[in-house]
Design a protein that fits this description.
This protein has 329 residues and is α+β, with helices and mostly antiparallel strands. It has two domains: 129 residues, no CATH class; 140 residues, no CATH class. Helix content is 47%, strand content 12%. The chain is built from nine helices and six strands. A six-stranded antiparallel sheet has the order 1-6-2-3-4-5, with helices on both faces. Strand 4 and strand 5 form a beta hairpin. Helix 6 packs antiparallel against helix 7. The longest helix is centred in the last third of the chain and has 30 residues.
Length: 329
């Protein structure tokens, strides 16, 4: 079992303050930190970020494929059947040295103070590491760090004060086993990462999804200006943030994978510009919604579309090379 102190926990560099997107989405964030806490390198799991797509009203909510977590690290993730109160499952599995990933209400998560905590009920995901039922204390990964909660938050999170409601739907949860963790060398991880990159490059959309997003954004902006910043923030999380964060992670993965390959370096640079462009968009969009006046976003989207196209072209060129020509570090 991990023994972690929230006051001393040092998060991974992927969550450093200088990142464009310190927090990406609740699922990839917790996996970055869970792997980091195990002494594993989370950068190796990131090839899937190159294949995000615009789904019409949101960008792909990107998650690490469980099969790839097993290949890279020997971490086994299985869906849990929540057939009794969730707390009972958590107690049993954490006592056995396993972790539990579960949907949770951010209303009871003190690390969201200033946003959701005690303000609004919002679904998120946490990974539970440690539980003390007697003291009503929980240690958990969420977003960019490791935290604890206790007392009324513990009771609220596990619905201890709520009567049994036959209409209540159990939360989705997963069981995480790390008893067969593999610690590959950096070179081994990079070889696996290069192969996974080839596979995910084949999944990249054939049509430029940034162009589709640009058209959707232009159509949605008047409605967002009518509905206000609260709706815009939810919209921007599902769209702008997911594209920007995926681009930044793709950039950092490619630079970690091979810093000397010019083709991959050009793709990484294009992703870095795309990430920065989305950061500018999310702020400019908020100002436009608040001001309720027309704003021309075309130049920003044109640059983002060109960066996506360049990154994709370079990745496909790299994937087309025979494996023997790979310039592995």
């Amino acid at each position: 079992m991990l023994s972690l102190d929230p006051a001393r926990y040092q998060r991974h560099a992927l969550h450093a303050e200088e990142r464009d997107w310190v927090e990406k989405n609740c699922y990839i964030d917790i996996w970055i930190e869970v792997l980091h806490a195990q002494g594993l390198e989370p950068l190796a799991m990131l090839p899937f970020t190159v294949a995000v797509d615009f789904e019409g009203d949101q960008w792909t909510f990107f998650k690490p494929p469980h099969g790839e977590l097993w290949v890279l690290y020997g971490v086994d993730v299985q869906e849990m059947t929540v057939w009794r109160p969730l707390l009972e499952h958590v107690v049993l599995h954490t006592a056995a040295g396993r972790m539990v990933s579960t949907e949770a209400d951010a209303f009871f998560l003190p690390d969201t103070r200033g946003t959701d905590y005690r303000a609004q009920h919002t679904k998120t995901t946490i990974i539970v590491v440690d539980v003390d039922v007697e003291q009503r204390r929980l240690g958990y990964f969420h977003n960019a760090g490791y935290f604890t909660l206790e007392g009324d938050d513990f009771a609220g999170l596990f619905r201890l004060n709520a009567p049994r409601d036959p209409a209540y739907m159990p939360l989705f949860a997963e069981l995480i086993r790390t008893d067969r963790v593999r610690r590959l060398t950096p070179d081994q991880l990079r070889r696996h990462g290069a192969e996974l990159l080839r596979r995910h490059t084949a999944r990249i959309p054939t049509a430029n999804p940034v162009e589709a997003f640009a058209a959707r954004f232009a159509a949605d902006l008047p409605r967002l200006q009518e509905e206000g910043l609260a709706v815009y923030h939810a919209y921007a999380f599902a769209t702008v943030r997911q594209l920007g964060a995926a681009a930044e992670l793709a950039c950092l993965f490619l630079r970690w994978l091979n810093a000397t390959d010019s083709t991959l370096a050009e793709a990484a640079d294009a992703y870095a510009r795309l990430s920065a462009g989305m950061k500018a968009l999310i702020l400019k969009g908020a100002r436009a919604v608040n001001a309720k006046r027309p704003v021309d976003f075309a130049p920003l989207f044109q640059a983002a579309s060109a960066d996506w196209a360049l990154a994709t072209e370079r990745l496909r060129a790299a994937a087309a090379r025979p494996a023997a020509e790979e310039r592995a570090p």
